[in-house]
Automatic annotation (TrEMBL):
PANTHER family: N-ACETYL-6-HYDROXYTRYPTOPHAN OXIDASE IVOB-RELATED, TYROSINASE FAMILY MEMBER. SUPFAM superfamilies: Di-copper centre-containing domain. This is Tyrosinase central domain protein. Keywords: Copper, Metal-binding, Oxidoreductase. Residues 216-227 form the Tyrosinase copper-binding domain. One of its GO terms (molecular function) is metal ion binding. It comes from the Eukaryota. Signal peptide: none annotated.
Length: 293
């Protein structure tokens, strides 16, 4: 009997359980684990690797919660349209004890001072933008507060229900990637976002950093939704969507690396063994056995 792990919304006590596990095994607070996302960042964003690499990244996170923290609940995701117009009203971000903490506190440098992650310290400098050239000293220990500055206008415009419908209606992977992540095109980066970029930009602060955004506990739920969108889209057409790949492993899909194939290998550093793209294409194949509710 297959035991398919569910990913979906959590009730009150389940939320506390999830928060407990996050506190216990926080990729965000673990120097060596966080370095993995930082090191691979220029190779797995705004290109053909974003979806697959982050699928494995959050799966490794889920796996760690389950094996190291005995977490048995669902992996939650951030359902963008639900509170796109008012992030602070969302049960995820209202600052209550069962949220992932709220907005930054404007009287305290936009540090997060409410909810379970109040006064959390993060390790790495922030302010990195997507560039091929890694800024110097990115791995320097630079402790500061987890910070946010919600901008619901961004989610209201770029992560609403219409945006999602349009994303899922994409006729091919090129269109799907572009709609998910318009940052694929640097020319429009400054004025138009796909919902992936919008989630990061709408939270601002820690979540907006290109390299170290996983320092915000919201990162995993944001990428849970990115993965959910891809999983739903893949399932809409097994013949044409399931194995569809497009792009390279260079930022903005520049042709500095070969075009991705199912044999392309992705690294995950200390988090786990390398994986071929082929192994990351179905939530219910290989090591994976999960589905979204
Ligand atoms: Cu990322």
């Amino acid at each position: 009997m297959l035991n398919i792990l569910k990913r979906g919304s959590l009730s009150g006590s389940d939320r506390e359980e999830y928060i407990r596990a996050v506190h216990y095994d926080n990729f965000a607070a673990d120097y060596s684990k966080l370095r993995v996302h930082m090191s691979y960042a220029p190779h797995v964003h705004a290109n053909g690797a974003l979806l697959a690499w982050h699928r494995q990244f959050i799966w490794l996170w889920e796996h760690a919660l389950r094996t190291e923290c005995a977490y048995q609940g669902y992996l939650p995701y951030w359902d963008w349209p639900l509170y796109a117009h008012n992030l602070s009203a969302s049960p995820l971000f209202d600052g209550s004890p069962t949220s992932l903490s709220g907005d930054g506190n404007r009287d305290h440098d936009y540090c997060v001072t409410s909810g379970p992650f109040a006064n959390m310290r993060v390790h790495f400098a922030q302010g990195a933008t997507p560039t091929l050239q890694m800024p110097p000293n990115i791995f320097d220990y630079t402790p500061h507060c987890l910070n946010r500055q919600f901008n619901s206008t961004v989610t209201a415009i770029f992560a609403n229900a219409t945006v999602i419908d349009r994303l899922l209606a994409s006729s091919d992977i090129i269109t799907f990637q572009e709609r998910m992540d318009i940052s694929m095109n640097p020319e429009v980066w400054a004025r138009e976002f796909g919902p992936h970029t919008a989630g990061h930009k709408a939270m601002t602060g820690t979540m907006e950093d290109f390299l170290s955004s996983p320092q915000d506990p919201a990162f995993m739920l944001h990428h849970g939704m990115v993965d959910r969108m891809w999983a739903i889209w893949q399932g809409l057409d097994e013949t044409n969507h399931r194995w569809a790949i497009n792009g390279t492993m260079t930022l903005y899909n520049l042709p500095l690396t070969p075009g991705l194939t199912l044999e392309t290998e992705f690294g995950f550093g200390v988090l786990g063994p390398s994986k071929k793209m082929r192994e990351l294409m179905s939530p219910q194949a290989g090591d994976y056995c999960y589905e979204y509710t």
